[in-house]
Amino acid sequence: MQRLILPLPGNEGFAKRLAALCQGELGAVETRQFPDGESYVRLHGDPRGRAVDIVCTLARPDPRFLSLVYAADTARELGATQVNLIAPYLAYMRQDKRFQEGESISSLSFARLVSSTFDRLLTVDPHLHRHPTLSALYTIPTTTLHAAPRLASWIAANVQSPLIIGPDEESEQWAGSIAERIGAPHVVLRKTRQGDRQVDIQVPDLSAWQDRTPVLVDDIASSGRTLVVAAGKLAGMRPPQCVVVHALFAEDAWSQVSDCFERVVSTDAVPHPSNRIELAPLLANALLRDLRD
Ligand code: R5P
């Protein structure tokens, strides 16, 4: 039976591309606020007897999370055989430890809420740092997809003679994999974070790579400080470019980052004017491979 693909508002474009690639039926989720601020949710599409994939990227998750839960519960109540969450960007992965006494480990609480609502989670490049896999947090089956091959293809097709640069040790996984795929050199910088918007970055001697175009690659651009500070340390090199997976670009981050680079591109995991790399084919393959009825 054809799967029903239901985008939360703001995810229609991604869901449409996904539905076309996996021959799913595209439905809709209507949401609005009641006058008292509570959320109203209505599904358009019949979930009865079939798998339902709710598409909702989780950038800025707090205002839409309850609607997402209500949509999933409604799909189940109306007879869906399974209710999956397709979240190209998965939120609350960075507060994975009590850094200071009394802090919430929100990645654990968020995982508990999602695990109690959905049957399965599919996502792309979740920020796994202190936890090696999503199964350390989530009790439902999860599928973790990687954008690196698509980033690598974009760089190979669009940047001549690149030097792939990861701005911190955590980015080795993306930088190394992209560089290997396209046969380019890569270096990884060292970052120390002092606060949400304060980072310091140490850069090794890059003089051997002055004839190459520096391409910074990272999983997330949030405050943008990582990218801005890293770009500032590349004096003497060709104008840098930047490719990120999750274009959160909080507050004025986009104007700051775009001023520092010749070009900034991102995947469509989070809708943003910098989106150039489509991820629907990755998710569609995973759905067709893993979640056949
Ligand atoms: C950090 O560990 C991540 O890989 C990113 O470098 C980080 O989340 C970027 O954050 P911001 O844009 O706020 O510097």
TrEMBL record:
Residues in Phosphoribosyltransferase domain copies? 147-250
Instruction: Return one GO MF term.
Output: magnesium ion binding
Pfam assignment, any one: Pribosyltran_N
Q: So which domain of life are we looking at?
A: Bacteria
The Enzyme Commission number assigned here is: 2.7.6.1
Query: Which keywords does the record carry?
Result: Kinase, Nucleotide biosynthesis, Transferase
Q: Which GO terms describe its biological process?
A: 5-phosphoribose 1-diphosphate biosynthetic process; purine nucleotide biosynthetic process
The UniProt entry, under InterPro entries, shows: Pribosyltran_N (IPR029099), PRTase-like (IPR029057), PRTase_dom (IPR000836), Rib-P_diPkinase (IPR005946)
Q: Ranges for the Ribose-phosphate pyrophosphokinase N-terminal domain?
A: 7-114
Q: Check the record and name the SMART domains matching this protein.
A: Pribosyltran_N
Q: Name one GO cellular component term.
A: cytoplasm
What family, per the record? Answer: Belongs to the ribose-phosphate pyrophosphokinase family.
NCBIfam families, alphabetized: PRK07199.1, ribP_PPkin
- Protein name as annotated: Ribose-phosphate pyrophosphokinase
- Lineage of the organism: Bacteria, Pseudomonadati, Pseudomonadota, Betaproteobacteria, Burkholderiales
